[in-house]
């Protein structure tokens, strides 16, 4: 197996599955900023000190940044940028949209001021038609930010709703998601975030066919899957290799990276994750 030993690691005599250096355009790992776990800049600095070369970006979830002083949000951004990682908003534009276009413009302006690079356009809680989504993508891009629409098949996804509540709401057609994703990419979106609810979260059985349809319809490099659960991100790596883009909790970086590089795994993945390095890097 041809490998490139990662960039600055101990025990580098052990071969690894190929992982490119940052900035990566595939095999991206995005981690969650404070939300379910409340932590500050010292903790984030620790995460980057330990695993910074494997963290491509951080994402604030649920508008949690709106509960912190502006200079503190900026401090998180500075730490991420110092380690070559981007900063993304999570789902919150659904809230801002309720207050009109001026509020959206103000949101994008302040997002740049606090160091955000990416704006997630989440559609789980709102009935946003495709033309409206495309206008938002255009507005974000024109503001000098990257647009990351979050699309899913579960109506009411994106929060802490239970399985029974979501089952009552019903699911959307996977073909609609793929069409919206294609059109958003054509309109300038950088990547499409795929909501886990309805696929691997809050379902009785995983909808693996939906994940396959998304990858086949949009391309592995154009999508990122929410996978903040060990069995979920293992399943994605096992089925689609270590170049799949994944969003996980900040506590899971080394577990995921060990799987990506083939230095550890579980029963069905141990020793089986292979990715030869390009000849120039082997």
From TrEMBL:
Source domain of life: Bacteria
Database matches in InterPro entries: Aldolase_TIM, ComA_synth, ComA_synth_sf
Signal peptide (UniProt feature, chain positions): none
PANTHER family, per database record: PROTEIN HEAT-STRESS-ASSOCIATED 32, PTHR48413
Family listed: Belongs to the phosphosulfolactate synthase family.
Protein name: Phosphosulfolactate synthase
Organism in which the protein naturally occurs: Leucobacter iarius
């Amino acid at each position: 197996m041809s490998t490139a030993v990662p960039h600055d690691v101990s025990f580098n005599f052990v071969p690894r599955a190929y992982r490119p250096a940052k900035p990566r355009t595939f095999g991206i790992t995005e981690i969650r900023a404070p939300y379910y776990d409340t932590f500050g800049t010292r903790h984030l600095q620790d995460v980057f000190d330990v695993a910074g070369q494997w963290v491509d970006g951080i994402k604030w979830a649920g508008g949690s940044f709106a509960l912190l002083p502006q200079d503190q949000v900026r401090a998180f951004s500075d730490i991420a940028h110092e380690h070559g990682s981007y900063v993304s908003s999570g789902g919150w534009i659904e809230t801002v949209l309720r207050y009109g276009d001026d509020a959206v413009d103000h949101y994008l302006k302040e997002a740049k001021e606090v160091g955000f690079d990416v704006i997630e356009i989440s559609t789980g809680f709102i009935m946003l038609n495709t033309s409206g989504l495309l206008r938002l993508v255009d507005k974000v891009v024109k503001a000098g930010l990257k647009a990351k629409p979050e699309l899913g098949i579960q109506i009411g996804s994106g929060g802490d709703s239970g399985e029974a509540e979501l089952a009552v709401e019903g699911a959307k057609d996977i073909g609609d998601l793929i069409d919206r994703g294609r059109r958003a990419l054509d309109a300038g979106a950088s990547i499409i975030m795929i909501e886990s609810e309805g696929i691997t979260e809050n379902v009785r059985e995983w909808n693996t066919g939906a994940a396959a349809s998304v990858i086949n319809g949009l391309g592995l490099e154009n999508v990122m899957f929410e996978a903040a659960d060990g069995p979920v991100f293992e399943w994605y790596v096992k089925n689609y290799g270590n170049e799949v883009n994944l969003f996980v909790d900040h506590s899971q970086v080394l577990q995921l990276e060990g799987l990506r590089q083939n230095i550890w795994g579980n029963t069905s993945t141990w020793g089986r994750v292979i990715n030869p390095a390009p000849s120039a890097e082997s």
